[in-house]
């Protein structure tokens, strides 16, 4: 069974478990258990696990902060405001990113606008943890690329890019944020989509000319929103 199938099964089980928790809480089956909180905790645990797999520290600390907001009394922090708890979790994640992530040129976690080129190798790799980032990528003969967005908003323009004659592959991963990607409509594109509880929107259509090399895009969306534009 493919990895995507395992992911879909796990996500489906979590959604069903959350629905069961809502039902049991509504009918008062277990009045001493915070069933709704437990259901939300299951979702947050999945988000944490996905972030751990990508080694996204902000993606890991953010759901921990939300979980702490649910159990302030049990954790003895009921006097702390929810806003402060979430802010602390995000700042801890940013701090860990700064400590352990590899340094990158023009790396600013809150707002970044850069232009990247990798024409010689036919590859590119861009990521955004939080805040806003815009990337203008013009790569001739794309063979492999990676676009990774965690919590913020990331906009990527692939205008002027072409695909390697043997075909190309782009891995798109969006966690809790918003990812917007502009792809030339002249390219022939195939999607392999793995969408969790988020939303994926495709605007326009790619080329259907089968004589063109195929660009395969593996799109993995968690709880965020993805917009793909063919222009």
Description of the molecule:
The structure is a single chain. This protein is α/β, with parallel strands linked by helices and 231 residues long. It has helices at residues 3-27, 35-54, 57-70, 72-75, 82-100, and strands at 111-116, 123-128, 132-137, 144-149, 153-157, 168-174, 178-183, 188-195, 199-203, 214-221, 225-230. The chain folds into 2 domains: 3-100, no CATH class; 111-230, no CATH class. The protein is built from 5 helices and 11 strands, in the order H-H-H-H-H-E-E-E-E-E-E-E-E-E-E-E. The protein is elongated. The relative contact order is 0.11. Mean pLDDT is 84; it is low at 104-112.
> What is the number of strand segments?
11
What gross morphology would you assign?
Answer: elongated
Mean pLDDT level: 84
Number of helices: 5
Structural class: alpha/beta
The value of Rg in angstroms is: 20 Å
What is the number of independent domains?
A: 2
| Largest sheet, spatial ordering of strands | 1-3-5-7-11-9
Helix content: 25-40%
| Proportion of residues in β-strands | 25-35%
Low-confidence stretches: 104-112
What oligomeric state best describes the polypeptide chains here? single chain
N-C termini distance: 36 Å
Secondary-structure element pattern, one letter each: HHHHHEEEEEEEEEEE
Largest sheet: 6 strands, parallel
